[in-house]
Amino acid sequence: MDEIRIENMNWMDIKEAIESGYKTVVVGVGSNEQHGPHLPTKTDGFIGDILSFEIAKKLGNALQAPAIRVGCSDPHLSFAGTISLRESTLKAIIEDYVNSLKRHGFTHMIFLPTHGGNFNALREVIDQLQKSNPAVVLFAPTDFEEMMEGGKELRAKLGVTPEEAGSHAGETETSMMLYFAEDLVKTDRFTPGFVGEFGPEQMVLWEKEGMPAISDIGVIGDPRKSTKEHGKLYLDSSVWRIMALESMKVILKEFL
Prior knowledge:
The chain is built from eleven helices and four strands. It has one domain (6-252): Rossmann fold, CATH 3.40.50. α4 links the parallel β3 (108-113) and β4 (137-139). α2 (43-59) crosses α10, α3 packs across α4 and α8 (171-181) crosses α10. The chain has helices at residues 11-19, 43-59, 87-103, 119-132, 144-149, 152-157, 162-165, 171-181, 200-209, 228-244, 249-252; strands at residues 24-29, 62-64, 108-113, 137-139. The two termini are 19 Å apart. The protein has a four-stranded parallel sheet with strand order 2-1-3-4.
C-alpha cells in the first residue's frame, strides 16, 4: 500500500485494507512536555509517531493509527508548555482506542511508548484490556530498563557515554530530532544537564520534587555530540530492537 497512516486515509480505503489482511495497527504513545532549552515539547509524541510508522512498515500488513501525543508528565509541569494527563485519563484514552479499532476489525494492536512516564499506566491498562478482550492480541513493550539499555552497544561504538546519551533531551533524543526535524532543534542552546548516575537518590528527588530537582534546564544527558547521522542509526536500531523482542513473536507469527 502507498499509504498506511490511518489519519491520511479515507474510511473506504481503511475498510478495504482491513478486509484485505491489514488487521494489525500500531500506535505511538508519547507526551507533550519540556525537552530542555533546545528541543520542542512535542519530541516524545513526534518520535512515537515516526517509530510506530516504521514498525508498521516493517510488519507489512499493518496500518498506523494517530499517535497519542500527550501523556503522564507531572515531573515536568514546572516548565512552560508541559501538558500532563492523569494515569486514569491515559488509560481511558487507550481503552477507547482499543474499543474503536477492534470494532473495525483490527485483531492485533501494538502500543509503543516513547515517554517513560507512560510505561506504568500503559502496562496496567494493556494487561486489563487483554483479559477483557481475548479475541484481540494487545502488545506494548513496557520494560523501561530493556528499552533504555537496548542501544547501549551502538552508542558506545559512536563514542557516546550513557551519561551523555541520557534519558531526557540528551544526545540520543537530540540526534533523533536532528534527523527527523532539524529545523525544530536549537543547536546554539546545546547545554549539558544532569550527567551523573541516575540512582535511587535521584529517583526519590524526581518523584517528590520533579525534574527541577535533577536539572534546572530540564535535561538528563548532554546533547553536544548529537548529529543527524547518529539519529538515523538510533531510529534503525530502535526498530530492529522492537522487532526482535521475544514478546513481539505473538504479533510476528501472523506474518511469517
